[in-house]
Amino acid sequence: MKVLVAVKRVVDYNVKVRVKADGSDVDVANVKMSMNPFDEIAVEEAVRLKEAGKASEIVVVSMGVKQCEETLRTALAMGADRAILVETDTELQPLAVAKLLKAVADKEQPQLVIVGKQAIDDDANQTGQMAAALLGWAQGTFASKVDIAAETVDVIREIDGGLETVKLRLPAVVTSDLRLNEPRFIKLPNIMAAKKKPLDKTSPADLGVDVTPRLKTLKVAEPAKRSAGIKVANAAELVAKLKNDAKVL
Ligand code: AMP
Which pLDDT band, with edges at 50, 70 and 90, does 226 fall under? Predict the structure, then answer.
């Protein structure tokens, strides 16, 4: 079974992002970039499926600028077999990524596509769902457990107030949630070995996909600063403050 995993290059989750002075976007100049954390989980799951003898090949794909190659190399170091970069300088929105993912899936014919539940930069949570719709495949979103059989996959989904188990017919799209697994630490020999693994390049034009943005960002702003808190001496003072100052009682 071939597994296709989508990995996005995003601002590292430890970076405190700043908004550009003109409010047009987040400033990503000279900022550490990494693989989207949910995509690390997606790659880890694919590698575990291969280690368990349930997957035969793992192909990772990233869409975006040339530097996405680094993200793909990280995925190869985790255990993916080969990588595809769909190179473009155009800003990619989820629908464009979903169309590209469909085009790659049409070529590669995987049985399973795993993407992150959401990218931590745009927080869209749309790509997996839209890719499944475009492919006409079943989808198991927010997966915290994936159990593959010959023609089906059982997915335990994290939903409000509990867990839902769905059985999907393969081929299917799964989106990884936080509790699906804990990605492995990458060892140096694997980083070296990853440099020799195949990385093919293509472009939206080669895949026949129009990636022109459909949405226009009007404004990006930092969250409003919170005012400092105060300490109260006792419960009576707290109640008085809630009544008279905060006016919530
Ligand atoms: P989003 O819908 O933007 O929140 O992204 C959900 C998931 O889609 C991510 O976790 C990735 O697995 C995948 N994805 C989104 N954008 C890209 C991209 N440019 N390249 C590769 N995968 C992507």
Answer: confident
Please tell me if the CB atom of residue 116 comes closer than 6 angstroms to any atom of ligand 1. yes
DSSP class of residue 91 equals P
SS3 174: strand
Residue ranges of domains in the chain, CATH in brackets: 2-245 (3.40.50.620)
> Measured between alpha carbons, how far is 93 from 138 in angstroms, rounded to an integer?
22
Confirm or reject: Cβ of 36 under 6 Å from ligand 1: yes
- Which backbone phi and psi does 210 adopt, to 5 degrees? -85, 115
Ligand 1 center to 121 CA (angstroms): 10
pLDDT digits (tens, 9 = 90+) for 60-76: 999 999 999 999 999 99
- pTM passes above 0.90: yes
Atom number in ligand 1 closest to CA 64: 19
Which ligand 1 atom is nearest residue 38's CA? 10
